[in-house]
Amino acid sequence: MAQDNFMSFRRHRYLKLAVGLVCLCIVLYVRDTPPVKPGGGTWLGYGLGTLGALLILFLLAFGMRKRAYNSQLGSVRGWLSAHVYLGIALALVATLHAAFEFGWNIHTLAYALTIVVILSGFWGMVLYLRQPTRMSNLLDGLTLQQIGEKLTEIDDRCKMLAAKLDAKTQALVAESAKCQIFSSYWQRLTGHNRSCATKRVLAQMGMDSSQGSKEHNEIYTLQLRRSQQLNRIREFVRLRTWTEIWLLCHVPLSIALLMALIAHIVSVFFYW
Ligand code: HEM
């Protein structure tokens, strides 16, 4: 069964709306026979330009709707669905508004930024479609804090067991407990920590397996579990970091687009 997500919201309501809008714009554009060269300056051009500007304002308003927790203005899911489909439709509306005429000017800058924001939106869409399930699977329904508590439990148990063993094992257990999730931002992006103390300790204990005591074996098993939990946390943080980075591109680009749009509209009316 297809998974229900924001793309299929209310039986693809906004997909249908966007397709209808796109078809209407294409029909109007093809049938239009302006007395001057087609472009932003014809009646249809003004109409498409107004529609495009309204769409951009609506897409920007999503940021406010997301944070208006008490709003009665439709669900955030519905807004996101509309955001994605109408955002994609905007690419065609803006292209027809420009009538495929581009140059080195503020008008084309506004157009280019529109396309760049839309393209960045696709990247976000893929992240949002794939990540929620992957992220909750990684944490097994637990919160990051609960996983952290489980690690502390493992460390306490290992410390207790190691107290019955030699100083070397105690040092290894202490070293592993200090292991950082990541020690650089680059590691957050890749999700790997090559200098992971727990992995080092595991390798060391693997070599020491000649000890073979009950405590030693239990510590080894617990360290193995610790390493698995750390890997899950690392993957979770990696996915969350990429989502944050994406928003750090999408939102400032949207603001830049708003500025360029204002400049475009002002310049059009100034030179009119
Ligand atoms: C000119 C076009 C667009 C503008 C101005 C725009 C603007 C925005 C803004 C302001 C936000 C809210 C971010 C926040 O405050 O957290 C947002 C979120 C988002 N946008 Fe866009 N966007 C555009 C097009 C698109 C397109 C075409 C897509 C997908 C194909 C898309 C996908 C998303 C997604 C997935 C989010 C995140 C939703 C969330 O955090 O829950 N955007 N966009």
Task: Provide a compact summary of the structure.
This protein has helices spanning 9-31, 43-67, 76-98, 106-139, 144-162, 167-177, 185-190, 197-207, 214-271.
Characterization of this structure:
This protein has 272 residues and is an all-alpha fold. It folds into two domains: 6-140 and 247-271, no CATH class; 144-240. The chain contains nine helices and no strands. The two termini are 55 Å apart. It binds protoporphyrin IX containing FE.
Q: Oligomerization state of this entry?
A: single chain
Number of helices: 9
H/E series, N to C? Answer: HHHHHHHHH
- Kindly state the percentage of residues in helix: over 70%
Structural class: mainly alpha
Helices and strands, with pairings:
Layout: H1 9-31, H2 43-67, H3 76-98, H4 106-139, H5 144-162, H6 167-177, H7 185-190, H8 197-207, H9 214-271
Essential attributes:
mainly alpha; 9 helices; 77% helix; binds protoporphyrin IX containing FE
